[in-house]
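Board notes (copied after class):
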Amino acid sequence: MKQPLADTLRPNDLNGFIGQDHLVGKSGPIRKMIERDSIPSMIFWGPPASGKTTLAKIIANATQSEFYQFSAVMDGKSKLREVLEQSKVNENFDQHTILFIDEIHRWSKSQQDALLPFIESGQITLIGATTENPSFTVISALISRSRVFTFKPHTDADLIVALQSGLKKLSGKLTKKTKEAMQLLAELSNGDMRFAINSLEVSYNISDGNITKAVIEKSVQKVLRYDKKGDEHYNLISAVHKSMRSSNPSAAVYWICRMLDGGEDPLYIARRLLRFASEDIGNSSPTALLIANNVYDTCHKLGMPECGVALAQLAQYLSLAPKDNSAYIAYESAMSDVQKYGNLEVPLHFRNPTTKLMKEMGYGKGYKYDHDVEGGKSGQQCLPDELKYKKYFK
């Protein structure tokens, strides 16, 4: 079976490693750890194909450790037990054990818990790789026993270095047109080195070695990185919300288009805009909620791509509308008091005396019908005694 180009280009030491200078550059912390042969348990967090697996293997090679690679999707506790048994044998030969778990965020809490005593004792060094924010997907006990290192998407310059190396491996020619094609491919790869190299290999195979911009465009079909359930999903919708809050309609529309182009459900975006109409605009412009609701219905009826313009129209309206978050603050504050004080008693004068017994108990006694009061405002106590002076709207 032919080995993919991306695998043949994978370096075995830091000299061939591309990018992540903040981690493995001359003063990078991981480089210093490797040089001192002092490797702690670590969590590598970053986008796909940013070098997490490659760096883990380089660490194992550089420290002469026994390296075991897990896939959190395929491997579980049974294989972990095998590795732990072998790690005891390794210790007898003064050899350290590194356990690399790819996509560690996919392991359950109990599976992650199983690692703790062996990391604590030093029997294994864990290197976990994840594309998800470890704060939400890795148990806190594991994070506290590990160093978290953030990997950045590769720059275009990083990708061009890798692409030129790949082209050389394929025996392709580096002409002026090829250089222009490599630049285009780097830009289209969005920091994903695996995507860039795989696309280069496809381009080479369909072009007889003469790679041009036109060939790159044929071989690259989808370029935007987007996971509807992952970090980028939440990053982008946060950018939409905060752009509108900052009254910047152009930015809001850009982020919405990023989501739509990545395959996001337009109804999800419409729901978030509907929420924004209450949370950030409120009664400073009550029609915002009505318009947002109408756009939601429009998205439901039309679907993509027709409803995209309606979302852009709504984002523009909400961005430029006056802002008022008093309803949001009042709701959050009142809910906090509900959770703090529990089931406080409704004042007796607010209770309906539907039976004779209730009336005898004082239900409804002293209630003032505000329409009959001069000025239409009785000023009577409306909240429980513990909160009677509370004002949620300032």
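Comment from the instructor: The first helix runs from residue 5 to 8. The CA atoms of residues 344 and 386 lie 8 Å apart.
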